[in-house]
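Let's practice the habit of predicting before peeking. Look at the sequence and jot down your guess about where helices and strands might fall. Then scroll down.
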Amino acid sequence: MDLVALQNWLDNISFAVLFLTMLMYWVGAAFERIPYLPALSTAGMAIANLCIAALLGARWLEAGYFPLSNLYESLFFLAWGITAIHLIAENMSRSRLVGVVTAPVAMGITAFAALTLPSEMQNSAPLVPALKSNWLMMHVSVMMISYATLMVGSLLAIAFLVVTRGQNVELRGSSVGTGGFRSDRQRLQRTSDLIPQPQASINEAAAVERFVEGNGTAKTAVLDLVTTQSSPVTASNASATIHEPLSPQRLSLAETLDNISYRIIGLGFPLLTIGIIAGAVWANEAWGSYWSWDPKETWAMITWLVFAAYLHSRITRGWQGRRPAILAATGFSVVWICYLGVNLLGKGLHSYGWFF
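Done guessing? Here is the structure:
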């Protein structure tokens, strides 16, 4: 079997494996007691990652250069990055919800590359003179890995918003493994952790929820809903400000998603910074200018500013919960515009020229 036929087999296998893996993650999220399904889902993502790596390796051997010269190659490299970062995030969070949001994106990327792109865009071609540089690997690979990392972090932030139902839940500090949930408006404490609290004021309400541990022992979780305003709570605004309490399991999951999302974005941001700097150096070498405000460069700067604002809000302002999650969710769209929208629809030095 020649390398071209092998690539065709590998891209189709990657799509099929990711499709089945996505279904396993979704079924596992709906029916949590199905045995072996979490392990099979993780194995499916790992197999897809290896298939895509083999595809890129075969492409490298066939073309003789690092496979990041056209849209087909970069899409599969992005899918490889997402599956790799997924495995890291899933290992950190121990939650199958990571795959529920990342598997469809990885599957959609491979489907678009293998089934939608014209055949002439899937074939390898000789590099143009500007791309015959070691900066092709150094700049583009770092940028693609940063895109994949930021996408996974943003997807986890979107999952956080879904789990918390968009409620204004703000966490305090690192919450992984603490077993508790701390918030300005919602403070969850288990019975064993309860300490004497001052008598509730007129602006405080308490909601008590019973939940059963895995060993069948019933415990009590107290969820204090704290209103920071000093005005009395009336019947008209009480229904608008007090939401249905979230279960302890949902709160614990939201806490983990928030923390892992923060860590993954914290990894992707310096990679994006390094990629932009490397691109500026390469642009000066190829075109005689470090920065020309090409549409791709402009949106790369916008992407950098969005995630810089996210990290600034968390590190300097101490934001956690819904507000930074909304900012990260916005960043997911901005990354796609920077990577794909500008390349396909815009006109510039980085345009693939498919639509125009």
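How did you do? Confidence is low (pLDDT under 50) at residues 173-241.
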